[in-house]
């Protein structure tokens, strides 16, 4: 089930976010940048701000199975640009359609809002995520300058895979 995130989901979302990030950052950046109590608190605060957004500013969706949050996605619309800021699936739930369902919920919300184009940044070493996004229609902007350790991808919502 995909649903809008609630404030009472924050602890579960922050913990899931930390587990997911550890899978692609481990061994590449210092652990304190993605794990530990301070990072968990920072993550929870960021998710708290995201969950409190108005619908016009963006949304946070949770994937839930048997009462457990198994994935989360968030986007932000600011200054006329929409950005998919987060899409994480708990690693124990990979390859079960959770990411695709969250992506479809985002695409449906963007279409309802009349959004035509969305951007995201993906960690350059996260090849799993890059393959996922490519399979859903996200493409690199050939004119984009690389953004540090992240790649910028764009989705034309009208051409997006909503499923």
UniProtKB/TrEMBL annotation:
The keyword Translocase does not apply. This is GCN5-related N-acetyltransferase. It comes from Streptomyces katrae. Keywords: Acyltransferase, Transferase. The keyword Manganese does not apply. The lineage of its organism: Bacteria, Bacillati, Actinomycetota, Actinomycetes, Kitasatosporales. Residues 1-160 form the N-acetyltransferase domain. Pfam families: Acetyltransf_1. GO terms for molecular function: acyltransferase activity, transferring groups other than amino-acyl groups. InterPro entries: Acyl_CoA_acyltransferase, Bact_Acetyltransf, GNAT_dom. It comes from the Bacteria.
